[in-house]
Amino acid sequence: MSPSRILERLAALDTNTVSDALDFLQLKGATYGLRPLWDCPKIVGLASTVKVGVKQDTTATAHLLTPVIDAVTTDDRVLVIAGGTDGISCWGDIVANASRVKKIRGTIIDGMSRDIDGSRDVGYPVYGRGVTMVSARNRLVQINSGTPLQVQGVTVHEDDYVVADRCGTVFVPAQRIEEVLALGERIDQRQALMVQDVRAGKPVSEVMHDSKFEAIRQDTSTPVATETTSSSSRSPKRAAVEDQEMCALFANADTPVVSDALDKLGINGQVFNVMPLANYQKVTVGPAFTVRYVPASDPPGSVGDFIDDIAEGDVVVIDNGGRTDCTVWGDIMTQYAGLRAIAGTVIDGVCRDVSRAINDDYPLFTAGRWMRTGKDRVQVGGVNESIGVGKVRVQPRDIVVADANGVVIVPRERAHEVAAVARKIEQTEADIRELIAGGASIADARKSLGYHTLQRKE
């Protein structure tokens, strides 16, 4: 098969599907932490490998990467750079412009980039660990190119295949590409059928049963039949009146004011290191439906049956121990949760299939994103029990408030108290804003209304 045809087929798959195929074949290729450094498009291509390292002397050299860029003669290359140092750039706008002229498809950096706006302005995709302003000049040099690299624990060879999208970056060994493609296409086909079943109302616990995934291993060119109706289909649970009343207490609150109220009352409720997937305009409020994941047993247990028991308006709160090496939420769960009017999901861990959640505007709050499945790595250890998420203890039915600023947990038994304090703080801040608008200095306005004691523990 020609490389162009392979790239065409590979481009039809996302990193989640390719990662799953690698898992089935017991191949390493999924990397964690190499994410788009601007809202750049997906890239698929052949790796041109470059290794950089710390400069050891003062000898003048060609700027790193420039010889590799100049040598490119085809339009199917992706630069893969390893050896970067935190805080020091391996990329900038001039090399981005040069790469665009050479029709290079994008750059993957196990390191940092600067001048990221310059890459964005010319539409050049860059994936990496982060951004910085510090130049590589006289700090980093190109050591070699066209040789095997270690990228986040994955060995990448020249001409290996690269796929990068919103969930991260994955590499496929060139000698195994057709095998990975064939399996990936079967996985993609089966996942599409699963989504159809979910949309038809079939319980996700049946749709995502382990046996359904294991069937992907079958070497068949025909789709496995699925049912679109089921006698066990269930309508979503309705929200309890008491839950609705509890959530209504925070209808006009956001996480900053609730956080301030928690501080004043001496309650630890600010969830650490869990952030919104997108810049949500609305505040998500709902009672916690708690889920605890544990490492998979042998044989492994289930990863998602709990979702059929969640009521409308609940927020799924998942304790995966902060793990970033495997996901516990993907597009099928997002699709099903949206259909069942679940309010949102909070994960002390990572998610995948983020395009679905972003496009559906489904509120998702996580410690990160990655494409590698949690199947056979984790399993549900318990539901509706006390869990720990981001250094906060969460009890079933505690009230979750989440927005673009993050996530806070309000103990259910203190919800009325927290809401009352939050309203008082919000009113005081509104009064300060009114005084300022009327011409008062910010110092006088704050002093007159006791701003500096608003969050102070009583």
What's this entry about, in short?
This protein is α/β, with parallel strands linked by helices and 458 residues long. The chain is built from 14 helices and 24 strands. The chain has two domains: 145 residues, Glucose Oxidase, domain 1; 177 residues, Ribonuclease E inhibitor RraA/RraA-like (Glucose Oxidase, domain 1, 3-Layer(bba) Sandwich), CATH 3.50.30.
What does this structure look like?
- The chain is α/β, with parallel strands linked by helices and 458 residues long.
- The chain has two domains: 145 residues, Glucose Oxidase, domain 1, CATH 3.50.30.40; 177 residues, Ribonuclease E inhibitor RraA/RraA-like (Glucose Oxidase, domain 1), CATH 3.50.30.
- It contains 14 helices and 24 strands.
- Strands 1, 2, 3, 4, 5, 7, 9, 12 and 13 form a nine-stranded mixed beta sheet that branches. Strands 14, 15, 16, 17, 18, 19, 20, 23 and 24 form a nine-stranded mixed beta sheet that branches. Strands 6-8 form a two-stranded parallel sheet.
- Helix 6 runs parallel beside helix 11, helix 10 crosses helix 13 and helix 11 runs parallel beside helix 12.
- The longest helix is centred in the middle third of the chain and has 23 residues.
Describe the secondary structure blueprint for this structure.
Elements: H1 3-11, H2 15-24, E1 30-31, E2 35-36, E3 43-54, H3 66-71, E4 77-82, H4 93-101, E5 106-109, E6 112-113, H5 116-121, E7 126-128, E8 130-131, E9 140-145, E10 149-151, E11 154-156, E12 161-165, E13 168-172, H6 177-199, H7 204-207, H8 210-214, H9 241-248, H10 255-265, E14 275-276, E15 284-295, E16 315-327, H11 331-339, E17 344-351, H12 354-360, E18 364-366, E19 368-369, E20 378-383, E21 387-389, E22 392-394, E23 399-403, E24 406-410, H13 415-437, H14 442-448
Parallel strand pairs: 3-4, 4-5, 5-7, 6-8, 15-16, 16-17, 17-18, 17-19
Antiparallel strand pairs: 1-13, 2-7, 3-9, 3-12, 10-11, 12-13, 14-18, 15-20, 15-23, 21-22, 23-24
